[in-house]
Amino acid sequence: MEPDESKQLDPARLTKWHNEYFSQLSAFLFGLLRNHSLVEETVQTTFTKALLSGGNVQPGSEKAWLFQVAYHEAMAVRRKAGIHKRAVSRVENQLRATENSGSHSKSRPDENLLQSETAKEVRAALDELPGNLQQVVSLRIYEEKTFQQIADELKLPLGTVLTRMRSALQKLQVVLKRDLDQ
After folding, report:
1. Apex 53 CA angle, 47 and 57, nearest 5
2. Which of its termini does the chain have fewer beta carbons within 10 Å around, N or C?
């Protein structure tokens, strides 16, 4: 076996690691993430990575290895949350700008017609999305649920829900740009 190849961890050894380090790892991650559900997800990801590639870890360095993996996973979660927060903020700002400009244009039927046409185009673009993406967008926009509530309702990891929303937004952007170009 080449040195860079990952080796699975023996399940008995994983259980030992879990029993020894779970509490400390959870406390460490809570200090970084400040969110119990994100901590649970990150601990789960950490131990999954331990199972898949922890067989290469030298005896005696298990704790350091686990904490390093957990730290990197937590930083990835924080980056995703930051990206999501900026995207939501951008959308909210755009909606406020649309609402503000809409309140000044009530006397202009051409702008009302344009808004109506845009709404129809967005609905049509939403209909082109795959069902799993439509479901996340619908729960987020129409039912105003948080991503965590959506994840809980659909029994999916938070990361999956965020990825589906990001994919949906990217696909909507492509579809709407295509329709604009036609």
Report:
1. 95
2. C
pLDDT tens sequence across 79-108? 887 776 777 677 777 666 666 665 554 545
Cα–Cα distances in Å, from 9 out to 54, 59, 81, 134, 181? 5, 12, 30, 38, 53
Say if CB 45 and CB 75 are below 8 A apart. Answer: no
Residue type, 4: D
As a whole number of angstroms, the distance between CA 128 and CA 111 comes to: 26
pTM, two decimals, is: 0.50
Alpha-carbon distance of 116 to 102, in angstroms, equals 11
- Copy the structure tokens of residue 86: 């900026």
Q: Which two tokens stand for residue 177?
A: 């740009």
> Which is nearest to 69 in space by CA: 33, 45, 52, 51?
45
62 contacts 9 by C-beta, under 8 angstroms: no
Q: What does each C-alpha distance from 76 to 20, 29, 163 come to in angstroms?
A: 25, 12, 13
Helix, strand, coil proportions of the chain in percent (round to 5)? 80, 0, 20
Look at residue 52 and give its three-state secondary structure. helix
* Token duo for residue 38: 């994100």
Of 139, 140, 154, 162, the residue nearest 79 (C-alpha): 162
